[in-house]
TrEMBL record:
Protein name per its UniProtKB record: VOC family protein
Domain VOC, residue spans: 6-155
InterPro entries noted in UniProt: Glyas_Bleomycin-R_OHBP_Dase, Glyas_Fos-R_dOase_dom, GlyoxalaseI/FosfomycinResist, VOC_core
PROSITE patterns for the chain: VOC
Recorded superkingdom: Bacteria
UniProt source species: Qipengyuania soli
Pfam families documented for this protein: Glyoxalase
Gene3D superfamilies membership: 2,3-Dihydroxybiphenyl 1,2-Dioxygenase, domain 1
Length: 173
């Protein structure tokens, strides 16, 4: 077995590195910890997102344009499917007690977001209006300047073997 300790970094692509630095460092408060000038004229910057993990971005002047609904979420929660091989979203761990303040901070910064904390449960819809004992994670969703969907997430319970109760789907079925 491999001895993986957690996420080291996730590498994404941005449309404007300066705008990305302003968002991740200025709005989210993630320190810029490493910058690399690539031989092809591009850049690769790393932001400390806590717990020893980083969010990294590539930028190229001639990079392909964004492809909402293909390589990124088009409109959460209504059109949230993305293509095979794409990154749907990244979730940053947060204390549950900080979620309401996160909504307020995103609002104050003018960042598009869910205007309430989302309670995820095992109901048919997967979400509940009110907090109850079946809610397993609470989330706030937002997008960065590149249209990348982000989530602040707080687990509300520890998972047990009973939480694994679905057979994996296959296209051959």
């Amino acid at each position: 077995m491999f001895k993986v300790k957690g996420i080291n970094h996730i590498a994404l692509v941005c449309r404007d590195m300066k705008e990305t630095v302003q968002f991740y460092s200025g709005v989210l408060g993630m320190p810029l910890v490493k910058t690399v000038q690539l031989p092809d004229g591009g850049q690769h910057f790393f932001f400390d997102c806590g717990g020893g993990a980083a969010v990294a971005f590539f930028w190229w002047k001639d990079g392909p344009p964004a492809a909402p609904g293909i390589a990124s979420v088009k409109s959460f929660p209504y059109e949230s499917k993305t293509a095979v091989g794409s990154m749907n979203h990244i979730a940053f761990d947060m204390e549950e007690s900080e979620l309401e303040a996160a909504v307020d901070k995103l609002e104050a910064a003018g960042i598009p977001h869910t205007h309430a904390v989302v309670n995820h449960d095992d109901s048919q819809m997967g979400v509940a209006q009110e907090m109850h004992e079946g809610v397993f994670v609470r989330s706030v969703y937002f997008t960065d300047p590149n249209g990348i969907m982000m989530e602040f997430a707080a687990y509300t319970k520890e998972f047990t073997p009973e939480d694994v109760r679905h057979e994996p789907a296959t296209v051959d079925a």
